[in-house]
Design a protein that fits this description.
The protein is an alpha+beta fold. The chain contains 10 helices and 13 strands. It has one domain: Oxidoreductase, molybdopterin-binding domain (Sulfite Oxidase, Chain A, domain 2, Alpha-Beta Complex). It is globular, with a radius of gyration of 19 Å. The two termini are 34 Å apart.
Length: 320
């Protein structure tokens, strides 16, 4: 009999526990007289401890009216409990596991083809760069979607700290590597750490955003704390989480998913309803919290802002 071993990229698509239940668990247990023993028995609380949040006094940032939505925001409890973060497992319910990640302190390095290498603590970065709030659509390659208020700053503003050289053509992003805290990174047959990349033109687009918060608060660990990329016109796997290093280069990076499945996940990964994934359609998406589906939009609805980036690139696989 043939058996199939599930790969880390095979989707287990299910609902996570309601955040309202888990974040009130401490109060509930205290009222029952269970205290520390009860907490230990049930497991780590889903809510991130306030002491590990970075610069909470800076949030929420002022909302930028140029980036709004034409549909309702996703409920915070869904966006913060239904998460892909493969360093902590292949299911959506990785909230507890992700709490093992140490995010304070957290040094970000910007190097490569730059005038000055930058090594700064994320706490110093968010205090130096003005934080704003933007409302963005987020479309996962798995065909679910959400609508999120992100807080942070444009990617190009962050890169300007290191003054990229004119010869740089790409931006390479690298996340953390810590198998002691992220159990899936103990599986050496996967290409850890997680790598992603953009062209220098994409990185300079107004939509390219570095998020350090969401829903008016600092990022939670399961959502990519303390600093992540947000590229709303691309499939969600491009929006790398928990970034440790950004390198300006003249060589096109090979991303984590591109290395794992080059026939299914390409470098550009722009959203297009007319180009199916090899194993499913991309014509429709399922918003979190909605039992129905809605049509997928070209470039996730941001064609006016980004389509010109790909002029003359018809030979590239732009939509996978």
């Amino acid at each position: 009999m043939l058996t199939r071993t599930r790969k880390i990229w095979d989707v287990i698509d299910h609902r996570a526990t309601d955040e309202a239940l888990v974040t009130n668990r401490r109060k509930l247990l205290a009222g029952m007289g269970m205290g520390t023993i009860g907490l230990s028995f049930i497991g780590r609380a889903h809510a991130q401890e306030a002491g590990s949040l970075i610069a909470p006094e800076l949030y929420p940032g002022e909302r930028n009216p140029a980036f709004t939505l034409d549909r309702p925001l996703t409920e915070e409890k869904l966006a913060t409990t239904y998460n892909n973060f493969y360093e902590f497992g292949g299911s959506k319910d990785i909230v507890d596991a992700a709490q093992a990640l140490t995010i304070k302190p957290w040094t970000l390095t910007i190097d490569g083809m730059v005038e000055q290498t930058v090594e700064m603590d994320v706490g110093d970065i968010v205090r130096r760069l003005p934080i704003e709030e933007r409302l963005y659509r987020h479309r996962c390659v798995e065909a679910w979607s959400m609508d999120v208020p992100w807080s942070g700053f444009p990617l190009k503003v962050l890169l300007d700290l290191a003054r990229p050289q004119g010869s740089a053509k790409y931006v390479r992003f690298e996340t953390f590597l810590n198998p002691d805290e992220a159990p899936a990174q103990q599986q050496s047959w996967y290409p850890w750490p997680y790598i992603e990349g953009l062209s220098i033109a994409e990185a300079g687009n107004d939509l390219a955003f570095i998020a350090t918060g969401m829903y008016g608060k600092p990022l939670l660990k399961q959502n990519g704390a303390p600093i992540r990329l947000v590229t709303p016109w691309k499939y969600g796997f491009k929006s790398i989480k928990s970034i440790r290093k950004i390198t300006l280069t003249d060589q096109r990076p090979v991303s984590y998913w591109e290395e794992l499945g080059p026939s299914e996940y390409g470098f550009w990964a722009n959203v297009n309803p007319e180009v199916p994934h090899p194993r499913w359609s991309q014509a429709y998406e399922r918003p979190l919290g909605d039992f129905g589906s809605v049509p997928t939009r070209l470039f996730n609805g941001y064609a006016e802002q980004v389509a010109s980036l790909y002029s003359g690139m018809e030979g590239e696989q732009l939509f996978m």
